Amino acid sequence: MDVKLLRVTKEGIDLVAKGAKLSGVPLAQSAREIVELITDNDYSSVLEHIHFTLDISGISVALSRELLEHRIASHTARSTRYKEEKGFDYYIPKELEQKGKEEEARIYMEAIKIANEAYTKLRELGVAREQARYVLPLALHTHYVLTINVRSLINFFMLRLCVRASPEIRELAMRMYKVCLEEYPIIFSKIWCRGFTLGVCPENEVRPEGCPFKKLLPEKREVKGKFERDAKRIIEKELKGFI
Ligand SMILES: Cc1cc2nc3c(=O)[nH]c(=O)nc-3n(C[C@H](O)[C@H](O)[C@H](O)COP(=O)(O)OP(=O)(O)OC[C@H]3O[C@@H](n4cnc5c(N)ncnc54)[C@H](O)[C@@H]3O)c2cc1C
Which domain holds residue 19? Predict the structure, then answer.
């Protein structure tokens, strides 16, 4: 898997600060201070002015389907209709490369081989790519160009840097994060999974043992539980005052 930066909005911090100054942010504040305030307080619509375009290669079709679920982005993937897939590259889950998983790895590789042979034979028999492609596996490598704004990237990182994300998309998120952090450290140093970014983990009881923040960050339910009953009384009072 590889992630390369194709294009990024230049001088994005000044651009965001300029936008924010139209709506109540003190004019005397520096661009850096404004962007920190926006990131900390989640006034994130102005962050939509900064775009990243990334070249993403060596990812599986299974991962590309997960990526496509992030609708606030522009997606372009290699076509299996117009491109030949004979002898395709493919994803191997790291778990299957571990010692003791030889039989599982053998079955996996055998399935890939059968798919490749079926595709190649169909193509040799003159079957069009758009028909032959249906025998290709989800492990098939694809190539992607993604354009995404910073607000949507933050949402992506919050969901996909979580240890509950599937391993391949988490690896992609890590690689994308490195690129983004290098370009805009002021913004991305404040971002990681939802738990880190929000200060509470919304995964509650499904947070796995392997979560590196388990001892550090409280669960959302734990924090909310402390004030929920009193807060609900306040909401009832607020509603009565209006209706
Ligand atoms: C651990 C994990 C497990 C998952 N499991 C599944 C699964 O089993 N099945 C499955 O289908 N998906 C699954 N997903 C994908 C998930 O449901 C989202 O589709 C995906 O993470 C994209 O998130 P998003 O909608 O926030 O992003 P985007 O589509 O980029 O949207 C960004 C934000 O825009 C807003 N938005 C976008 N579209 C709408 C809309 N139509 N209406 C209102 N607001 C909108 C929302 O605030 C949203 O958060 C999983 C994701 C994770 C992280």
Answer: 2-76+141-193
